[in-house]
Amino acid sequence: MMRTVDLIQKKRDGEELSTQEIQWLIEGYVDGTVPDYQMSAFAMAVYFKGMSMRETRDLTMAMVATGEVIDLSAIAGIKTDKHSTGGVGDKVTLILAPLVASFGVPVAKMSGRGLGHTGGTLDKLESIKGYQIERSQEDFIKQVQEIGVSLIGQSDNLVKADKMLYALRDVTATVDIIPLIASSVMSKKIAAGADSILLDVTVGDGAFMKTIEDAEKLSETMVALGKEVGRKTIAVITDMSQPLGQAIGNRLEVLEAIQIMKGQGREDVTHFICELAQLMLELAGVEKTLEEIHEHLVNGKALEKFEALVAAQGGDLQDLYRPSTAKVVTEIKAEESGYIEALPALEFGLFAMRLGAGRAVKTDALDYETGIVFEKKVGEAVESGETIAKVYSQEILDKKLLTEFQKNVKIGRVQLLPKEIIKVIS
């Protein structure tokens, strides 16, 4: 007879668990026979002792088995999906999903909410009046068949073990360990039913992975997991040392996404999204040049697809284009001349969270209108007195907050040229 305490001890001592032991543990946790306190101890043992590739695969598949697996076979073509490990100002999905769909490649994607300093795609979409993130499986599939794209919330019946385990890891300081991150991400992606998966693994100040080495290890683990279950999988390691693009905050990021889809966005983030789209299209067997993809992004085809997506899920297209209703807009001016050397993503993510744009705990209410829009990014020249950023808030910012913002803008004499995509792992 198996006992949870024996499995905890085995892992604590650095031994490998068998496939049957991992299945028994996960099934027991979901049905309530393995209590939270024992699962916490097991997660901490994994944190310190790690897991082999075989154990990580077994954990992933045991988690998949705790919920339904979505069958997308009714949708013609190679279904693609994309996942980001989280970041600050990450509005990529809002643009990438309609852009890829505009080439006739179906995108059936389940997204998540933001927590802490990282933003969630669902929260950004819910800043659009009427947008419904909850859809039945039938409606989800029907919408992809009809318009080629759907972005919804994760079904409650999908990977029950992950929902439970993630909440537990969040309060026991066992989030940032590779086998548990990899199994959490890939169990959801496998259960969501897509044929091919693009993984955006963020690295740097504003990401879970702080070093390139850890990002590579996580990417290699997730790509191997995807391939083992017959899903074409590619990981892209991307920079999250500064916020992505210009805006942080739900409504502000939707407006930036629209700007990019009108061909009026920053060149760096526009190019980055085209590169990701090229990889996603390749996974679906569609070869396109960056020029062809860029043309679709800026000539209105991607925006047309985004509007179709919003309308199909109940969103108000007039509200889609409405500016932020934040009561106060504060301009942050440069205190000296030089080059922007650093805009720490974590600090600005936390700052936006304090404005109401992010959650400290899952039950926190969001203010969709608040946030930050950067006029200058790392590597750009700035003159003393020039506007670096605008802060959107519901009340006048106190001196302490303004000082804190200024302190985090690093201006120096060195012109750094950041690179969005650091490495591709396939």
Task: Explain what the structure shows.
With 426 residues, the protein is α/β, with parallel strands linked by helices. It is 45% helix and 15% strand. It folds into three domains: 4-50, Transferase, Pyrimidine Nucleoside Phosphorylase, Chain A, domain 3, CATH 1.20.970.10; 80-319, 3-Layer(aba) Sandwich (Pyrimidine Nucleoside Phosphorylase, Chain A, domain 2), CATH 3.40.1030; 328-412, Pyrimidine nucleoside phosphorylase-like, C-terminal domain (Aldehyde Oxidoreductase, domain 3), CATH 3.90.1170. The protein has helices at 4-12, 19-31, 36-49, 53-64, 92-101, 121-126, 137-147, 160-171, 178-191, 212-228, 250-261, 267-283, 290-298, 301-312, 317-320, 345-354, 399-408; strands spanning 80-84, 107-111, 149-153, 196-203, 232-239, 247-248, 328-333, 338-342, 371-374, 381-382, 387-393, 410-412, 421-425. Strands 1-4-5-13 form a four-stranded mixed sheet, sandwiched between helices. The longest helix has 17 residues, at 212-228.
